[in-house]
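Ticket 4471: requesting a sanity check on a complex prediction with nicotinamide-adenine-dinucleotide. Repro inputs:
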Amino acid sequence: MSSLYPGVALITGAASGIGQATAISFAREGCRKIVLADRNEQGLDETREAIRQVSSECHVLPVKTDVSAPDSVDNLIAQAVGRFGRIDYCCNAAGVLSNNQNSTATSPEEFDRINGINYRGCWLCSRAEIRQMLEQEALGTHDGRAGSRGSVVNIASQLGVVGRSAAPAYCGSKAAVISLTRGCPRLADTPSAKVIDTPMTRPNMDVLGSAIAIAPMNRAGTAQEVADCVLFLASSKASFVQGSALVVDGGYVIN
Ligand SMILES: NC(=O)c1ccc[n+]([C@@H]2O[C@H](COP(=O)([O-])OP(=O)(O)OC[C@H]3O[C@@H](n4cnc5c(N)ncnc54)[C@H](O)[C@@H]3O)[C@@H](O)[C@H]2O)c1
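Returned structure tokens:
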């Protein structure tokens, strides 16, 4: 059976958690060209090895990248296109967690750090990805429907939809990701995740436990459950989904 993913995937934050699970999922679902971006080189090696375990035919390009630095992002896209000729399925998952401080306790430096990675970094990556996609021909689809020149999936957060007094800088950075995505609807979609069990949240489960308990499913989600939504949004099966914020939160916002 032919893959839903005949093109090139590019994932930021690919060294850990949701980005890592997404990269491995692309390989498992038949994508044969994958670009891994993260500032953590050791984690990139781990992801490359995990991909090798699920697919011996997958070509992987790890690129050490700081998503908050324009030159580093430009280098990422240049290396990806230099190696594979195009990019088709981008997932921007690189991010940092809230500092667990309210606004009065947050310094301007801390605000800039969180927003520089989560918001500006996501914008820098999606801008560079979309620029490349606009130069490409559309790729064929699994069932012959009209193809697209690419898809961009930005990982926001449930905290971009609702507030948390101990995370205003983080909430703002993720609301900005959702709004940014709506601003480039032809290519981008956003899953908004609630508490997902990853290296980012594991050390803070005592703080996050009350948030988990509010949601009807009363458990943390898995990185795989977010990756599954990313793969749907990136695929030609989501051809009529544009600029949406898909909430992946165990029912938190309906409670
Ligand atoms: N885990 C959750 O509960 C949860 C919930 C909602 C949203 N999110 C979002 O999902 C995304 C992934 O989070 P995760 O839980 O997998 O966390 P994680 O810490 O496991 O992974 C994040 C990755 O981003 C990388 N990164 C951070 N800053 C970077 C930079 N400047 N340049 C390049 N790479 C950088 C890290 O090295 C790490 O590998 C983040 O954007 C996060 O805000 C996570």
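Notes from triage: The beta strands are 8-12, 33-38, 59-64, 89-92, 151-154, 188-193, 196-197, 221-222, 245-248. Leaving this open until the requester confirms.
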